[in-house]
Amino acid sequence: MEFVLLLHVLIVIIICPSMIVNSCNSSSLIAMKSKPQPPVFPSNFFFGTASSSYQYEGAFSSYGKGLSNWDIFSHEAGNILDGSNGDIAVDQYHHYLEDLDLMEDLGLNSYRFSISWARILPKGRFGNVNMAGIKHYNKLIDALLHKGIYPFVSLTHYDIPQELEDRYGAWLSPKVQDDFRYYADVCFKYFGDRVKYWVTFNEPNVAAIRGYRSGIYPPSRCSASFGNCSTGDSLEEPLIAAHNIILSHAAAVSTYQTKYQKTQGGSIGIVVNAIWFEPISNSSKDKLAAERAQSFYMNWFLDPIIFGRYPVEMQQILGSQLPAFSRKDLNKMKSGIDFIGINHYTSFYAKDCMYSQCEQGPGVSRSEGYYLRTAFKDGIPIGVTTEVDWLYVHPLGMEKIVTYIKERYNNTPMFITENGYGELNNPNSSVKDFLNDYRRVEYMNSYLDFLALAISKGADVRGYFAWSLLDNFEWISGYTVRFGLHHVDYGTLERTPKISAIWFKQFISNHSNLAST
Ligand SMILES: *[C@@H]1O[C@H](CO)[C@@H](O)[C@H](O)[C@H]1NC(C)=O
Ligand SMILES: *[C@@H]1O[C@H](CO)[C@@H](O)[C@H](O)[C@H]1NC(C)=O
Ligand SMILES: *[C@@H]1O[C@H](CO)[C@@H](O)[C@H](O)[C@H]1NC(C)=O
Ligand SMILES: *[C@@H]1O[C@H](CO)[C@@H](O)[C@H](O)[C@H]1NC(C)=O
Fold this sequence. Notes:
It holds the Pfam family Glyco_hydro_1. GO terms for molecular function: hydrolase activity, hydrolyzing O-glycosyl compounds. Keywords: Glycosidase, Hydrolase, Signal. The protein is globular. It has a domain at about 1-45 and about 395-400 and about 430-465 and about 470-515. It has 18 helices and 19 strands. With about 525 residues, it is an alpha/beta fold. Strand 12 (about 385) and strand 13 (about 390-395) form a beta hairpin. It has helices at about 1-15, 25-35, 55, 70-75, 90-105, 115-120, 130-145, 160-170, 175-190, 205-210, 235-265, 285-305, 310-320, 325-335, 395-410, 430-435, 440-455, 500-515, and strands at about 45-50, 110-115, 150-155, 195-200, 265-275, 275-280, 340-345, 345-350, 370-375, 375, 380, 385, 390-395, 415-420, 425, 460-465, 480, 485-490, 495. An 8-stranded parallel beta barrel has the order 1-2-3-4-5-7-14-16, surrounded by 6 helices. The chain binds 2-acetamido-2-deoxy-beta-D-glucopyranose (4 copies).
C-alpha cells in the first residue's frame, strides 16, 4: 500500500510539479497533458453530463408527486450512510434554468436526465397522470432545446412509484410489465415529439443485484449469507426481477416501435453498468472466469435483449433456476434496441473459482458465476486508488470494455452514458480544496483518450456523458461523496465550477472545432 501511495504522489508531482504548494493552475496542468494529435471524435458527437431524478430533483412530495421506493427507503433509519435523503437533493426542480446556464457555458450539446415515474404517475397505472409533472418536464425539455442541448432521457433510474412495490412487489411480479409499458407510453405521448433519445432502464444489473441479492438498495430483500435483510431470497429473486425488467424493457420498446417511432423518429436503448474484468492471470481458467464475470454481470441483460437468450454460462451454471422466455416473450423481444448505454467507471480483476478453491468474496458464489472480483494482484491495485472504495483509475479499461461490447454485440451504436470521479466530502476540506479537482481532470482526460482510441479502431460510440454536472445525492452514500464538475454547497445550494468544469469546456471546444472543420 505504501508503494501505491508513493506512486500516486509521484504521478501527481510529475504532472503538476507545483501542486504541492497549491499553486498549480489549470493551464499548466492542461499544457502538460496535451498531446500533439488530439483524439478525434466523430462529428455530431454528444458531449453532455448525466443526472437522475432522485439524485437531483428534490421537491419529493410536492406538485402532485407520489412517493417513490427511494423516498420510503431513504427515510428509514440506517439505510443512508449520513442519514440524509433526496428530499431536496440539489433542488434541480426549482434550479433547472440556472443549471441549463451552466451546461450552456460548458458548451454541452446534450443532457442526460431521468423522469421521476412517481411524478408522472403517482399511483402507477392505478391512478391519474399528474399534469403538473408533465408540465415540469415540458418546461425542462423546451428550455434545453432552446439552448441547442438535446435531451437524452431515461424512463427510470432506480426510482419507481412505491405504490407498485406495495401492491404487488414491483419487479418480482410480471404485473410490473403492464405498468412500465403504460408509463413509457405516457412519456412517449407527451414528450416524444421533442425527445429523440430514450433509455428504458438505467443499470438494471445494479438495481437487481443491490435490491434483491445484497439488499442494500430498496426493496432491501436478501437472504442470510448475502446481507442483512428481514426477508428475500438472494438466489432466486435477482433472476426473477431481472426477467421482469427485461420483459418490461421489451414492452416499452415494442410500444415505441409500433406507435411512435415512425412519426417521432427517435431511438431507444438501455443503459448497463459496465465493469472491465481483467483476467488476473493468462491461464485459461482465469480468462474463462473474466468471461463469466461479464456474463453474470452485464450480458445477463444485454444477451436476452439482443440475442433473445440468457448468456450460455448462466444457462450452464443456473440451469432451470433461470426463468424461461415463452414464445410470446421472444416475439416481443425481437424489437431489440437502437443503442447500448455504457456506464463505466472502473475495472477489477477476475480470478477463477469454478476449477480452483476460493475463500468467500464478491463474485464467488454459484449465483454470481464462480469468480473472485478483486482490485488487487500481488498486493498491487489494478489502478490508482481513489477516496471511493470501489473506484480504481484504470483508463485502459475504457478501451477494453467498449471493444468487448462492440465485438459481442456487432457494433451496435454505443454511448458512454456515465463516467466520472468521486471524492469524499471531507468536512475538513475547504471549498477551494474541492474546486482544485486535478485528479478528476486527470481521470477524465485519460478515460477520454482511451475512448478515442477505441473509436479510432472502429467502435461506433456516439457520445460521452460525464457523471456529473453537479455534486449530488449519491444513493446509500448520501452526500458523503462528490462527483460533480461543479461544487454544490448543500446549505445554500450554490453551484461553483471546479477546475474540471473549466477543463471539460476547453476539451469540448477543442474537439467540436475539430469535428466541424
Ligand atoms: C442487521 O439489521 C438489524 C436490524 O436492522 C440490526 O439490528 C443489526 O445490527 C444488523 N446486523 C448487521 C450485521 O449489520
Ligand atoms: C498475458 O500475456 C500478455 C501477452 O503475452 C502479457 O502482455 C501480459 O502481461 C500477460 N498478463 C498476465 C497477467 O500475466
Ligand atoms: C478533521 O480534522 C480533525 C482535527 O484535525 C481530525 O481529527 C479528523 O480526523 C479530520 N477528519 C477527516 C475526515 O479527515
Ligand atoms: C485545447 O487546445 C489547446 C490548443 O491546442 C491546448 O493548448 C489545450 O491543452 C487543449 N485543452 C484541452 C482540455 O484539450
